[in-house]
Amino acid sequence: xxxxxxxxxxxxxAGGSLRLSCTASGRTFSSYAMGWFRQAPGKExxxxxxxxxxxxxxxxxxxxxxxxxxxxxxxxxAAYLQMNSLKPEDTAVYYCAAxxxxxxxxxxxYDLWGQGTQVTxxx
Length: 123
Known about the structure:
The protein is 0% helix and 51% strand. Strands 2, 4, 5, 6, 9, 10 and 11 form a 7-stranded mixed β-sheet that branches. A 4-stranded antiparallel β-sheet has the order 1-3-8-7, with no helix packed on it. By secondary structure, it is an all-beta fold. It is built from no helices and 11 strands.
């Protein structure tokens, strides 16, 4: 099955941008919907974005809608989260997740998770 590894996190000033990457291993990557979630210390894991296996369907959480774009590249077996106009409240560990096969917005529907990548937005 698919295994996931996130990268691209780091420290950025408020108003800046980051592009997170999720590299997937597995020969059935296109059969999995992908999701991005984030979790700040002491808070629940929050839905950020999801994309269907074909890339034709996307949904975004209200906290990032209009500032983020989820995408995927079947030839690289990768999913991405482009984040713009970052705010200090975006600071969190960002996780990539996968599920077979339909998009979902809750953590309980995802069985495959990456290790997370830290995003810190300074004032």
